[in-house]
Amino acid sequence: MDLSKLTIHDLHELLIKKEVTSREITETLFQRIKEVDRKIQAYLLLTEEEAFRQAERIDHKIRQGERIGDLAGIPIALKDILCTKGIRTTCASKILANYIPFYDATVIQKLKREGVVFLGKLNMDEFAMGSSTENSGFQITRNPWNLERIPGGSSGGSAAAVASDECIAALGTDTGGSIRQPASCCGVVGMKPTYGRVSRYGLVAFASSLDQIGPITKDVTDCAIMMNAISGYDPLDSTSVPREVPDYKQFLIQEIKGIRIGIPKEYFIEGMDPEVEKSIWEAIELYRSLGAEIENISLPHTEYAVAVYYIICTAEASSNLARYDGVKYGFRSAEYEDLLEMYMQTRAKGFGQEVKRRIILGTYVLSAGYYEAYYRKASQVRTLMRSDFEEAFRKVDVILSPTAPTPAFRIGEKVDDPLQMYLSDIHTIPVNLAGIPAISIPCGFSKDGLPIGLQLMGRHFDEGTLLRVAYTFEQNTDFHLKKPNLS
Amino acid sequence: MRIDIEKVARLARIKLSEEEKLIFGNQLEQILTYMEQLNRLDTQGVEPTSHAIPIFNIFREDEVRPSIPREEVLGIAPSQEDGHFKVPRIIE
User: Fold this and answer.
1) Gap from A296 CA to chain B (nearest CA, Å)
2) pLDDT at B1
3) For A402-456, what is each residue's pLDDT tens digit?
4) 20 to 30 A Cα–Cα from B46, which one of A85, A324, A400, A453?
5) Does A325 touch chain B (CB under 8 A)?
């Protein structure tokens, strides 16, 4: 039995039956990383020593007969945008290449209390800006299903590591699809929770009104387990919502009779890959055969989503990233005569091309004379998009769509054309603008063997129904059981 | 060209090379043209959304709590002296 290939819930059973130890699991994972990460390049940093210390602690507890939680002793890896005390946190940016936080993000504290074993930090697009992980300041991560393809982004390292069994599960972050699109590209499960469900404290900010942390896992059960661990109000994040968190495992039931699933016609766009479309319609037919009610719906402002998103997220980014000035932490250029030049050189050398492009765009849309035309206008259209969803959720319980219009594209294919890259986010962006939760699950493969993802969107704080509908699909299909061949 | 790229880069505190000015200028022009489609929508009287989940008045008790030790904060600064961040001279 190869322990690296198992899920959180499989391993938990083995641990409590004392058939394996956390140390053995952790050893297997580091062995696996040594074998395949040369090809995948998912990890930016390994934290081996601390991982084994934690594994020993959990094994000791088990030997003492103590009860352990679902995640105790389970090896998990983290997108390198989450602050980890005493452990380098780079956001895949040269400007933070040597940044060692002196505090843990709230989600890290929560997972530590659960007894999770952290394997290391994962690659991403610099400051989470991108859809392919090609914007990393350090390395290119490859799709485990085809090494010439992108793993998606910005949480590409997280999705690739889960898909290649280099960790049992991972945390990612999602500002416009950065958990769901890579999960879709790599054939794994990814959930973006409702805005405010999970504390953002210690998540390095990109676009604060859109950012949310969420799990990337091998199946829906593991997604529920991770959601249980990371959800909840946090006084350190004033946008987290003081609302009770249900036990998400109670939604892992195979029962969707009477559930109303909406199919938004605007999501079946021109330029959508025919194989993606075919897989999605097969999924819809499966749901229908299982007793769900399928209804056609309309989200009329969808076509404006990309424009609205890239105004709002760049505006917020230009403000959030003003903090990287070479004064308090991070990189400082050595070439300057005065303070202004120090700022300008530090940011010129520290940031990559996409980050500069977005800061400049965001600065422009917020600048005097343009604010009304761009930022205010986009914020108004955002209201219209929210209303679209409110209207739709009066008629249906969940909304179903592809996660991305195509399977993973080729490395290098879109790097010189930012607008084309932005347009590939059309199916995931509206969810962040409306603050609703969504999940991507595997629903098929292209003829070339590339995974295809299905997205389910739900009402605010109704992650439970999403898990139930996703779980039912998973129990009736075997896409989530397929593994890429990396030997 | 509607973007004065040099002016915006200065506002953003990023020094751009001549090549970057050219590339970004063209790309941003194209992106802004794409964004103009928003003008097709009449949004008169529509309230802007800055936050998807409405939250108001988040308060906490005003009590003394330990803060991060100064040495830890200064310890990761690029340059520091006598308990301060050090930058080039700003007052003549």
Assistant:
1) 24
2) 61
3) 999 999 999 999 988 888 888 889 999 999 999 999 999 999 999 999 999 999 9
4) A400
5) yes
Q: What is the pLDDT of residue B54?
A: 80
For residue A60, the surrounding DSSP H or E stretch is helix A48-63
Domain holding A108: CATH number?
A: 3.90.1300.10
Residue A19: partners with Cβ closer than 8 Å, 6 or more residues away: none
CATH of the domain at B1: 1.10.20
Chain B residues within 8 A of A341 when measuring between CB atoms: 15
Q: How many domains does chain A have?
A: 1
| Sequence-ordered strand ranges (E) for A107-159 | 117-122
Residue B9 lies inside a defined structural domain of this protein: yes
Examine residue B69 and state whether it is found in any structural domain, yes or no. no
> What is the tens place of the pLDDT at every residue in A194-218?
999 999 999 999 999 999 999 999 9
Average pLDDT of the residues of chain A: 97
Is some CB atom of chain A closer than 8 A to the CB atom of B71?
A: no
The single-letter DSSP state of residue A198 is: B
Which domain range does residue A120 map to?
3-257+475-481
Report the phi/psi class of residue A196: left, alpha or beta, with left for phi > 0 and alpha for psi in -120 to 50: left
Query: Which of A310, A376, A386 faces B52 most closely, judged by CB atoms?
Result: A386
Residue B3 lies in a domain: yes
